[in-house]
Structures are given as C-alpha cells and as structure tokens.
Amino acid sequence: MPDGFEIGGQSFVELAGRVIKTRLIRKLFEDGALACQSKDGVTAENGTLCDHCRHPRCRPILRIHLADLSRVYLIDLNASSAHNLFEVEDRLQSASGSLEASPLLLT
C-alpha cells in the first residue's frame, strides 16, 4: 500500500516495533502474480540457482521480522526501502547502538 500497510484487511499508517531478523529473498512477478521466489536469495523453490537464472525482472527483497508487544510482522522491503533501513542501521552503529535494540516506526 503506498500510504501505509494492509494487514488482515485493516489499514495502518504506521507500524512500530523492533527488527528481530532480516534476510535476503528474491521474487519474480509476471502479469501481477508471483511466478518464482527464493526464500534464501540463492535457490528458487523449483531448485534453480538464482545466479544461473538471472531473470531480468527478478528482484532482491529484504525481508524483515518486525516484533511489537503482541505479534511479529513479516515485511518485504524493496531496494529503496532496504537502502533506507541500512542507512538507519549505519547511523545506529556509529552511535554504538544496534538495529535490534532500537524501536522503529515504519511509515
């Protein structure tokens, strides 16, 4: 959703929590449907190595696990959003902090 998050049919302008896990995945969409994915960013579910396939529309995605007090959200970040998160992480580390220890507000 361009103006927030849709979860279980409800819209949220923002989500708050702590990032407890990150991992690289890959997804390929064709005609608006998921055509292929790799849950580890290395091997597709059909067994093809991503490095051998190199489909031009396959995109790396950063999946984060964002935990609040009562649940964990799985959020897939595109390249620009992942870049923004890495910049936040760099700023935290230069101030002797960490992404996992810092509460975040995602908008």
Question: Which key phrases capture this entry?
Answer:
single chain; 107 residues; alpha+beta; 5-stranded antiparallel beta sheet; two-stranded antiparallel sheet; 19% helix
Description of the structure:
By secondary structure, this protein is of the alpha+beta class. Helix content is 19%, strand content 43%. The protein is built from two helices and seven strands, in the order ββββαββαβ. A hairpin with a 2-residue loop joins β1 and β2 (10-12). The protein starts with a strand and ends with a strand.
Q: What layout of secondary structure does this protein have?
A:
Blueprint: E1 5-7, E2 10-12, E3 15-30, E4 33-38, H1 50-53, E5 59-67, E6 72-77, H2 79-94, E7 104-106
Antiparallel strand pairs: 1-2, 3-4, 3-5, 3-7, 5-6
Estimated structural class: alpha+beta
The helix-strand sequence is: EEEEHEEHE
Please describe the biggest sheet, giving its number of strands, its sense, and whether it closes into a barrel: 5 strands, antiparallel
Residues in helix, %: 10-25%
Helical run tally: 2
Dominant shape: globular
> Poorly predicted ranges (pLDDT <50, ≥5 residues)?
none
pLDDT average, as an integer?
91
Can you count the beta strands? 7
Portion in beta strands: 35-45%
Radius of gyration: 15 Å
State the end-to-end CA separation: 11 Å
